[in-house]
Amino acid sequence: MYLKPWYKVVTPREDLREGRPLDASEFAVHLDHVREGRAPGDYQDPVRFFERTFLAKNLGTLAAGVVRRLSGIKVETSPVYNLTTQFGGGKTHALTLLYHLARGGRAASSWKSVPSILEAAGVKTAPEAAVAVFVGTEFDAITGRGAKNGEPVRHTPWGEIAFQLAGTDGFAVVAKHDEQRTAPSAEVIRQFLPKDRPALILLDELLNFMGRNRKSGLTAQLYAFVQNLSEEARAQDRVVLAVSLPSLLDEMTPDDEADFDRFQKLLDRLGKAMIMSAESETSEIIRRRLFEWGGIPDEGRKTAGEYAEWVLAHRNQVPQWFPVDKAKEIFADTYPFHPTLLSVFERKWQALPRFQQTRGILRLLALWVSHAYQAGFKGAHKDPLIGMGTAPLDDPMFRSAVFEQLGGAQLEGAVTTDICGAKGSHSLRLDKEAVDTIRKARLHQKVSTVVFFESNGGQTKTEATLPEIRLAVAEPDLDIGNIETALETLTDTCYFLSAEKNRYRFSLSPNLNKLLSDRRASIQPSRVEDRIRAEVQKIFREGNGVDRIFFPDKSSLITDRAVLALVVLPPDRAISDQGTRTFIDTATREHGTSSRTFKSALLWAVPEGPNALRDDARKVLAWEDLEDEQSELRLDEGQSRQLSENLKKAQRDIKETVWRTYKNVMLLGKDNDWKTVDFGLVHSSAADTLVTLILKRLRQDGDIADGVSPNFLTRNWSPAFKEWSTKSIRDAFFASPQFPRLLNGEVIKDTIVRGVENGMLAYVGKKTDGSYFPFHWQASLGSQDIEISDDMYVIQQELAEAYKAGKTAPSSPTPTSPAPGAPSTGLSSITGSTPAGPDSTGATLSNITWSGEIPSQKWMNFYTKVLSKFAAGMDLKLTLKVEVNSATGIPTQKVEETKVALRELGLSDKVDAD
């Protein structure tokens, strides 16, 4: 559901809309300034003052009691009031209200909220009274006040009060007491009190005056004066004394504490204590002071209702202290603010020594509202409520105001590093990199800001619980699970955020993430690369079924055998690099300086790239180093536990990264071109081992087989030969990509056994005269009876039947062809004479000549497959040239041994050497 942004529903006051710089003094009443006519208009003009003042319950009770007493009614009234709150709690504001009421008299009846005061007081009009104001921060006992326009100079509170109440005549009563700095008695005080009208005496900031004048003795005299004044006010019918004392003074000295206690006890004994601030009324006070407020609009009630519905739907996931059943009323009472924003100051911040409960909140929220209003209309954000997570901590002025309430800027680094205020702040970066739903909601920044406010700025052990964070951040249509996602990411990233058992707080000390970051920077690249290779080998060594060849950098390191081999390329051989493709192609077709026979035996595990592995390897190494240095780091129990958990997680992560990185396998396809198998997003739960996963997929695709049927051999029998050696059959499955790769070449024995048994194949040996011995056909054999060699053959059913019937009996060995797809033996030239017959079917040649190089591993095969055909009945001459080269030198002993061997064979022992 679409909810209007708050700034399109309610309007901040003009100075906030225009973004004019605001100072705390904007929300601090100076009573002396009001008396002298130089206070801001909101405080100086009584009409404006009462319009912007919310008449809280206790404030209304105080005002009604004072009016009643000034009217001469002594029943249910008090002549002395002690106004106590925390700093900034509204004491001076209350004194200002009494000042305007007493000065306004009958005219005050038309001011906003005054009729309700008069009704509570039981009078029709407020009596006009003589008012005296003494503010300790303004009055200086040494320089005094006066000497202008014929005024007498006053040096004491009693001199100043007497003058304000009765002018020069009143001061004359206490002139000597003022000169001698001695408090007047109750009898003397009675003389300067007005006889024709009520009197209201307002004392503010007394502790400041006492602290400055303790050495002169004025502090003790002030105590005596207030005591005498209080006693006299009690004896009078229409005199009221109102004194404000803070409930706690920041950095109070022992002498300050002693004076505070004395005055507190005196005033409590002789008067009535009034607590000015009430938590339930704070929101109304704030709305009156910050907005053009005429009550909550319909759109505001709609928003409150939607948020309340969300709370009701998630009642088990929000704090137990929040009254869920009254959610709609609570959201309406605090609109446009989220209720957790206002309550956090009362729940958490009021315990801070420097926190000013009303004035401090007003100062912060004024800057907050001004910033959010301008940002909103610039299109930056469209928040339906002003929530805790939207605090403009990136604004230096606002941040400074926050730290002022916290008692110092120790957390400046934590805020700018982890939340906002700097270009690389973690929360800002995480939001930028997050999915759309989290990025658009600025969820990382909101969550971290809520933790900052809820954890009391890290100044105490207060923490932000997960339910508190949910309530403060979530809004209609937001997936609540995204909050946990953001918290997890923040916990893994931030440098000053600590988390334990779903409790979060910002600390003054760097956390393990910061230690990790510093340590990661010191890890040498060589350690990282070694660790990566070790992790990759560890993963690929698990499982059976295939040989592994790790990180070859040249083709000669890759064996050329009729055995399936998985070649694992090093992490920096990325599949997207052209050089990687070139290397794979070259190493598949070559083996050192020779051509490769078993091209199809190679499976290539090709990485996506090394970056993710490098990051994870560096992290694992850093955590391991930190674990080794635990005793030196002096970690607490929670950090030690977190370190152990993080190390285990990092070890799991690098394992998963190996799986994700090596998700590509390349192999020759049936078309003799490269085929790439992309396994997609894989993880370790997909199979027991990564090798198992690869083999399973290749089986499914038909690229690997556990065995083949006899019928497969007959279907793929080449017409170029009659007999097929068992070794050539086996080799064909690793040399030709047209054949499926066998996990185990020995399974060919089972294929031959089944073929012999059903008559499709015969298993034979060949004698020199070309006859078959042994000859097994339509017989039962065991796989142990089958020999894989160049001397044992398989023939097809037709030839076996003919041979069995005696119709075919070769007189000489029949040449066999190499396995399909096998490379040539290095044939370079072959020539022969013109055929004697008319056609090539029965043609004969008088001689043939061949020359070429034969690889050493094929010398024996060359004799068996080529020369043996001409050894009987033909004049075969073999001319051999042997050339041996060695970069390290050929020992003379080997040369002599060669000569001896040549003589034993009846050959010339002439060897040319240099």
TrEMBL record:
Q: What are the Pro residues biased-composition ranges? A: 812-821
Q: Which Pfam family name is an example for this entry? A: DUF499
Q: Where is this region: Disordered?
A: 805-844
Query: What is the name attached to this protein's record?
Result: AAA family ATPase
Which lineage ranks, top first, belong to the organism behind this chain? Answer: Bacteria, Pseudomonadati, Nitrospirota, Nitrospiria, Nitrospirales
